[in-house]
Design goal:
single chain; 215 residues; 8 helices; 31% helix; globular; binds NADP nicotinamide-adenine-dinucleotide phosphate
Amino acid sequence: MATIGLIGAGKIGSQVARLAVKSGYDVVVSNSRGPETLSGLVKELGPRARAGTPTEAAKAGDIVVVTIPLKSYRQVPVEPLAGKVVIDTNNYYPQRDGHIPELDNESTTTSELLQAHLPKSKVVKAFNHIYAAELTTDGRPAGTKNRRALVIAGDDLEAKKTVTRLLDQFGFDTVDVGPLEEGWRIQRDTPGYGPRRTAEELRRDLAAARRYADR
Ligand SMILES: NC(=O)c1ccc[n+]([C@@H]2O[C@H](COP(=O)([O-])OP(=O)(O)OC[C@H]3O[C@@H](n4cnc5c(N)ncnc54)[C@H](OP(=O)(O)O)[C@@H]3O)[C@@H](O)[C@H]2O)c1
């Protein structure tokens, strides 16, 4: 069975780690303060989990999830992630992240920034529009009526297939919004950002999304 590396083990990272362990994956969790600060989480997750540095999590993961405050994205290790599927959960909050001009003027998107930092990785945007707590309460088996859906975006089709399978194992349908540059359709303050949605509802929300400047 594969290993999922987590760079960031806060609200979203710890929840993704819980889903991963429940689905039979090994996990390596990491944060900025060091593996010793993650002993409580590792104990809770059990024998499939260990803590490491971000570089160790990046090296160990077959799939690696980057789930940190956006302002720190340049600290994500580059070389150990080359060739790998990297899931990006990050959102832009200027009050937390400081102003990033190319996001303020929407000439790029958050996940494209991470992709540019990790040019040899296959970045897939996912998990950015669901509250952390709901990751472990809202999942349902495949085929359940009105199953909750989550959006993905990415430039690599195989990587998106991998993430779609992972989301299905975690209990969610997937709506593919297209390449990374379309990820703005599910950014902060768009209709699909936050509420529980089926795939059909999410598609409507994505079509109704407006650029900040057009509102
Ligand atoms: N919370 C939500 O419901 C939610 C939902 C969807 C998306 N998101 C987005 O997902 C990302 C993570 O959110 P969160 O709520 O999980 O944040 P959080 O609870 O504040 O956790 C952030 C994690 O990132 C770690 N970290 C910070 N800088 C790092 C670095 N340079 N290298 C490695 N790890 C680092 C932190 O470690 P230390 O504690 O050791 O610094 C912490 O484990 C954010 O971009 C957020 O906007 C959040």
